[in-house]
């Protein structure tokens, strides 16, 4: 029976044998990460061509088990010393999908070398190299399926609520039965010799006979409308985009909220860039510039949100005191605030915990499984 390591080794030999034919093997080799300019500036991430690698396919040899594989994008992490800092040099390699990180395709035992000292040096180098491979397809976990069902349920509610609002709007702008009857009554009267004698009262009598309620929602739908209206895209979108000041609002806080939110977005944008940067040395020089203090002190943007939250809680507290004569229903006060903030917050936590890794793929995209200990740590965020 052929082992996995033997299959990987034979596919690697098959790959090397077909390099001269300028076909799929050449594409796999071309997708490898290669040394680039700017190494002295910290450019040690040679990510190669991800799509070219995974789209390459090796046809299977006739009457053999060799071939029949796709390319698998992997990364070699080689220890590298740069400016008194230890960082891995990431080099992309394209291997047959029959190989995996636990089966190193370049085993020293497969090389016919008699120099023992050279073997020891190469073996030491290979032991310090880490090989990680990315998955091109993944099955949905139980948590991901649950979150998809939950989001689908809310999407259905949003569709129903938006449909009811759209139906009501269309019925309001369509000509009513009353206006049609009024028009027909006067048109008929104009063709009659006694048109001048047709009084407004007689026309209204005609309207009373023909008047219907066809332009109104059914009673059962009217009863359901307040609930589904909570999920309506049009209603909620109008509230979100409404810039008018309403009673009880504090317009002076909008500017502070906008500046704080923009500050948070700016800092997180730099955080994402740092994770995929290629010129570490230039970033170290940029950090020492005075203008970068805005990013280095970005934690104050979160503090400003804390100040706003504390101020608004105190503001609501004094409002409740004035309404209830100094008595505060503390249980209702805390439950109401928790219910207002928690649902959307927990949906975002659930999405990034279970579904974020499925939304895209690539050499720098997160590729991890949610372990059994990760979810409880995320659930603890609900105790904020």
UniProtKB/TrEMBL annotation:
<dbReference type="Pfam" id="PF01757">
    <property type="entry name" value="Acyl_transf_3"/>
</dbReference>
<dbReference type="InterPro" id="IPR002656">
    <property type="entry name" value="Acyl_transf_3_dom"/>
</dbReference>
<keyword id="KW-0472">Membrane</keyword>
<feature type="transmembrane region" description="Helical">
    <location>
        <begin position="338"/>
        <end position="358"/>
    </location>
</feature>
<dbReference type="InterPro" id="IPR006621">
    <property type="entry name" value="Nose-resist-to-fluoxetine_N"/>
</dbReference>
<protein>
    <submittedName>
        <fullName>Nose resistant to fluoxetine protein 6</fullName>
    </submittedName>
</protein>
<dbReference type="InterPro" id="IPR052728">
    <property type="entry name" value="O2_lipid_transport_reg"/>
</dbReference>
<feature type="domain" description="Nose resistant-to-fluoxetine protein N-terminal">
    <location>
        <begin position="5"/>
        <end position="121"/>
    </location>
</feature>
<dbReference type="GO" id="GO:0016747">
    <property type="term" value="F:acyltransferase activity, transferring groups other than amino-acyl groups"/>
</dbReference>
<keyword id="KW-1133">Transmembrane helix</keyword>
<dbReference type="Pfam" id="PF20146">
    <property type="entry name" value="NRF"/>
</dbReference>
<feature type="transmembrane region" description="Helical">
    <location>
        <begin position="294"/>
        <end position="318"/>
    </location>
</feature>
<keyword id="KW-0812">Transmembrane</keyword>
<feature type="transmembrane region" description="Helical">
    <location>
        <begin position="144"/>
        <end position="167"/>
    </location>
</feature>
């Amino acid at each position: 029976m052929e082992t996995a390591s033997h299959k990987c080794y034979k596919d690697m030999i098959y790959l090397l044998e077909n390099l001269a034919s300028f076909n799929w093997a050449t594409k796999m080799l071309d997708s490898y990460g290669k040394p680039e300019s700017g190494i002295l500036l910290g450019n040690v991430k040679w990510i190669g061509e991800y799509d070219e690698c995974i789209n390459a396919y090796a046809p299977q040899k006739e009457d053999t088990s060799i071939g029949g594989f796709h390319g698998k994008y992997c990364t070699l992490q080689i220890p590298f010393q740069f400016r008194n800092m230890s960082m891995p040099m990431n080099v992309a390699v394209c291997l047959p999908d029959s190989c995996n990180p636990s089966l190193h395709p370049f085993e020293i035992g497969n090389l016919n070398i008699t120099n023992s000292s050279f073997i020891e040096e190469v073996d030491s180098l290979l032991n310090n190299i880490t090989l990680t491979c990315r998955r091109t397809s993944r099955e949905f976990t139980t948590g991901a399926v649950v979150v998809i069902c939950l989001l689908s349920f809310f999407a259905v509610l949003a569709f129903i609520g938006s449909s009811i609002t759209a139906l009501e709007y269309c019925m309001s702008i369509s000509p009513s039965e009353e206006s049609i009857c009024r028009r027909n009554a006067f048109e008929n009267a104009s063709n009659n010799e006694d048109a001048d004698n047709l009084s407004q009262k007689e026309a209204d009598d005609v309207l009373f006979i023909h008047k219907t309620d066809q332009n109104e929602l059914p009673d059962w739908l009217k009863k359901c409308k307040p609930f589904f209206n909570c999920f309506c895209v049009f209603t909620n979108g109008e509230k979100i985009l409404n810039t008018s000041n309403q009673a009880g609002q504090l317009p002076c806080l909008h500017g502070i909220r906008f500046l704080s939110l923009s500050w948070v977005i700016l800092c997180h944008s730099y955080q994402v860039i740092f994770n995929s940067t290629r010129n570490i040395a230039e970033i170290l020089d940029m950090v020492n510039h005075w203008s970068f203090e805005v990013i280095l002190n970005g934690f104050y943007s979160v503090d400003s949100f804390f100040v706003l939250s504390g101020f608004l809680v105190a503001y609501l507290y004094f409002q409740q005191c004035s309404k209830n004569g100094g008595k505060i229903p503390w249980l209702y006060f805390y439950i109401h605030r928790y219910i207002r903030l928690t649902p959307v917050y927990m949906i975002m936590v659930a999405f990034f915990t279970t579904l974020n890794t499925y939304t895209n793929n690539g050499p720098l995209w997160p590729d991890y499984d949610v372990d059994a200990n990760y979810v409880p740590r995320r659930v603890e965020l609900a105790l904020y």
